[in-house]
TrEMBL record:
It is found in: Cell membrane. GO terms for molecular function: amino acid transmembrane transporter activity. The keyword Transmembrane helix applies. It is a multi-pass membrane protein. InterPro entries: LeuE-type. This is LysE family translocator. Keywords: Cell membrane, Membrane, Transmembrane, Transmembrane helix. Its main location: membrane. The lineage of its organism: Bacteria, Pseudomonadati, Pseudomonadota, Gammaproteobacteria, Alteromonadales. The keyword Transmembrane helix applies. It holds the Pfam family LysE.
């Protein structure tokens, strides 16, 4: 079993990590404000599944491969960078075709729940820093008096369930804020372009980020 004396500190750390600005929060905020709370929830579920996989990777020691074989980390980073760059350019192209080339505002094509789920999951799995963070963060709250494997699994699942609840709540907040801003500033026709720039920013952030830390 885990050491329950460290649980309050662990939960506080989980909360801070989830609400800190990053790719996950950016995705949830972007799509929740554009397509509503269901879209944010779909991305959140994708992130949740990715968290389960990352916890299992850490528990089974697979995350160490990224440090033992640096080329794996480089390859994963390249895949993530190209994926986000492709999404960003596609959204900008869609914005130009539906928003700029037409004199009248055109309703942008919303992504399905399955597409958003996949985007949320890939956002984590194609980011080597996320997996390395799991590998560095979770063991800090383990102790030698119990099975390390079970401790990692327990702490990992606590972390991803906390993230699930917080991200669902943030989806509601961003959805409400997005509707108010869209009605007030009439920015709906530019959302695809904004999202495209955000994805390109994610690509650059991943490409030029250090392999140290999360």
């Amino acid at each position: 079993m885990i050491d329950y004396s460290v649980l309050p500190m662990f939960l506080a750390a989980c909360f801070i990590l989830v609400v800190s600005p990053g790719p996950d929060l950016l995705l949830i905020g972007s799509y929740s404000s554009k397509q509503g709370v269901k879209s944010g929830a779909a991305i959140t579920l994708g992130i949740f599944v990715a968290g389960i996989l990352q916890t299992l990777f850490v528990a089974f020691g697979l995350a160490k491969l990224l440090t033992i074989i640096p080329m794996l980390s480089v390859a994963l980073k390249l895949m993530g960078t190209l994926y986000f760059l492709w999404l960003g350019l596609k959204l900008i192209q869609q914005w130009y075709a539906h928003g700029v080339a037409s004199a009248a505002p055109v309703q942008s094509v919303n992504k399905s729940g399955a597409q958003l789920f996949l985007i949320g999951m890939l956002n984590n799995l194609l980011n080597p820093k996320a997996l390395l963070f799991f590998a560095l963060f979770l063991p800090q709250f383990t102790h030698n008096g119990a099975d390390i494997f079970l401790q990692i699994l327990t702490l990992g699942f606590i972390l991803i369930f906390v993230a699930l609840l917080i991200n669902l709540a943030l989806s509601v907040v961003f959805s409400i804020a997005g509707k108010k801003l869209a009605n007030k500033f009439k920015i709906g026709r530019y959302v695809d372009g904004i999202l495209g720039l955000l994805f390109i920013t994610l690509a650059g952030r991943l490409a030029f980020s250090s392999e140290q830390g999360a």
